[in-house]
Design a protein that fits this description.
The chain is α/β, with parallel strands linked by helices and 214 residues long. The chain has a single domain, classed as Rossmann fold (3-Layer(aba) Sandwich), CATH 3.40.50.150. Helices cover 29% and strands 28% of the residues. The chain contains six helices and nine strands, in the order ααββαβαβαββαβββ. Strands 5-4-3-6-7-8-9 form a seven-stranded mixed beta sheet, with helices on both faces. Strands 1-2 form a two-stranded antiparallel sheet. Strand 1 and strand 2 form a beta hairpin. Helix 1 packs antiparallel against helix 2 and helix 2 packs across helix 4. The radius of gyration is 16 Å and the shape is globular.
Amino acid sequence: MRHRPQLSDRRAMVELQLRARGIDDERVLAAMERVPRELFVPPAVRLHAYEDAALPIGSDQTISQPYMVARICAELRLRGHEKVLDVGTGSGYQAAVLAELAREVHSIERIPELAAAARDALAEAGYGGRVHVVEGDGSLGLPGEAPFDAINVAAACGREALGALEAQLAPGGRLVAPVEDGEQRLVVARRTDAGVALTELERVRFVPLVSSRG
């Protein structure tokens, strides 16, 4: 029988899945080592929490593989003072990692059951007072809380939704999202004095961002 996930599993994940694949931001690596990923997956798959894979969390949604969580956090380049928007709370795991890296995290989830489960998991893991989970349409962001220094989008979106979220970036802010345009690619959007600069990264596969606007 496999043992229950332990700190040694998190350390192995950091070394073998993250550092070995090019994640070299030491703050991100330390955050990934601190957050107990097993608390953010259903009991039925808890023994697989530190495998290099996305895992089902119910409602046809998944928790992203550890590498992708770390890659997104590294691309956001957080240093501890930032206000962050997390679009697509899902399990709450990415929000917990972001809370280790930033000052304030607001996370939005459209599925009430997932939002409730994420709140419970975040509280159990010690992040209940550091992550604010709200139910709503992630494609709209949270205008009442904007601007944000960083925005993570955990579902594939089109250019229209990306533009609406970019508008909520503070000057110098960064947004990371999988963008669907025939294929999905991870994109970094950075707000500059001249507008928003886009950089395309690797191909990815995320669930689609569902919007009330269709």
